[in-house]
UniProtKB/TrEMBL annotation:
PANTHER family reported for this sequence: ORGANIC HYDROPEROXIDE RESISTANCE TRANSCRIPTIONAL REGULATOR, TRANSCRIPTIONAL REGULATOR, MARR FAMILY
One Pfam family cited in the UniProt record for this chain: Staph_reg_Sar_Rot
GO BP terms: response to stress
High-level lineage: Bacteria, Pseudomonadati, Pseudomonadota, Alphaproteobacteria, Sphingomonadales
Source taxon at top rank: Bacteria
Name of the protein: MarR family transcriptional regulator
InterPro entries referenced in this protein's UniProt entry, alphabetically: ArsR-like_HTH, HTH_MarR-typ, MarR/SlyA-like, Transc_reg_Sar_Rot_HTH, WH-like_DNA-bd_sf, WH_DNA-bd_sf
Tagged with keyword Cell wall biogenesis/degradation: no
Domain HTH marR-type residues, every copy: 9-139
Keywords on record: Cytoplasm, DNA-binding, Transcription, Transcription regulation
Length: 148
């Protein structure tokens, strides 16, 4: 279903923004059953890929500043999904690891659920190509922002 957004019809940034909001609405019921928000779920997936990452490495991977990331990690720790510990070599560094509950949440694979794929109304090939293009777009924009 396509809707007209008037003055935003030709704005790529608005199309990306509104698609992100729509994704969040579709994800919400899938993640509610896990007790997670989408950013929290992404953090858990990042740790499932490489456990014991530093807060700084997680921030780099998720494109989040520490003032956003640290409260998120504290909430996940309070909910039993992660643990935090000081690095043995450098106590200024905090490492984050998944608990059994966090590993179980990562195993849910909500982001590739049949409900989500069906909700897009797009073929798997088109979704793969779109993801590749958006990844390239994001990388180019981040590089441009660093130069400017």
């Amino acid at each position: 279903m396509t809707t007209s957004s008037g003055p935003f019809d030709r704005m790529l940034c608005f199309s990306v923004y509104s698609a992100g909001l729509a994704f969040n609405r579709v994800y919400k019921p899938l993640l509610d059953r896990l007790g997670l928000t989408y950013p929290q779920y992404l953090l858990i997936l990042a740790l499932a890929h490489e456990d014991g990452q530093t807060v700084g490495a997680l921030g780099d991977r998720l494109f989040l500043e520490s003032n956003t990331l640290t409260p998120m990690i504290k909430r996940l720790e309070a909910a039993g999904f992660v643990t935090r510990r000081r690095d043995t070599d450098d106590e200024r560094v905090v490492r984050v690891s998944l608990t059994d509950k966090g590993r179980a949440a990562a195993a849910e694979e909500a982001c590739i659920s049949p409900e989500l794929l069906e909700a897009t109304g797009m073929a798997s090939y088109d979704l793969t190509r779109l993801q590749q293009l958006l990844t390239r777009l994001g990388g180019n924009l981040r590089a441009s922002a660093r130069q400017g």
